[in-house]
Amino acid sequence: MVQFCPECSNLLRKKTDEGNSFLACKCGYQEILEQLVDLESVQKKRDALKKNLIIVSEEDKVSLHPIAKKTCPKCENKKAESWQVQIRSSDEPSTHFFRCTQCKFTWREQ
Ligand SMILES: [Zn+2]
Ligand SMILES: [Zn+2]
Asked: Which domains does the chain have, with CATH numbers?
């Protein structure tokens, strides 16, 4: 079903927001349709979306480490994230940490 804006005769686009669906036009005209989506399923979708966002942001944090060509002692994958940590005083050499990009095994080398 195609409807046109009574104000400017442009094509109205169907949108959904907060479980309500409505027709909207570029000029700002809106026509509310009946509530087609039940709120519970909208809420569930949002929760799922939030979970996804958290996962994505954690992955972002992890990928801040540069990837080094290192062989994982566990699964023999050839790539590992690497970063350095100064464990004791600044006179000591820093410890190199590696984390396998595949099995997430973490090990360290001096
Ligand atoms: Zn319009
Ligand atoms: Zn591995």
From this structure: 1-39 (2.20.25), 67-109 (2.20.25.10)
Q: How many angstroms is it from 80 CA to the middle of ligand 2?
A: 8
Q: Rounded to the nearest whole angstrom, what is the distance from the C-alpha of residue 52 to the centroid of ligand 2?
A: 25
Q: What is the Cα Rg of the chain in Å?
A: 26
pTM above 0.70? no
Q: Are 75 and 103 in contact (CB under 8 A)?
A: yes
The answer to whether the CB of 64 falls within 8 A of the CB of 81 is no
Decide if 22 contacts 31 (C-beta within 8 A).
yes
CB of 80 closer than 8 Å to CB of 68 = yes
The dihedral sign for the CA sequence 40, 41, 42, 44: positive
> In the predicted model, is pLDDT for residue 98 greater than 60?
yes
Separation between Cα atoms, residue 49 and residue 36, nearest integer Å: 20
Distance CA 83, CA 96 (A): 6
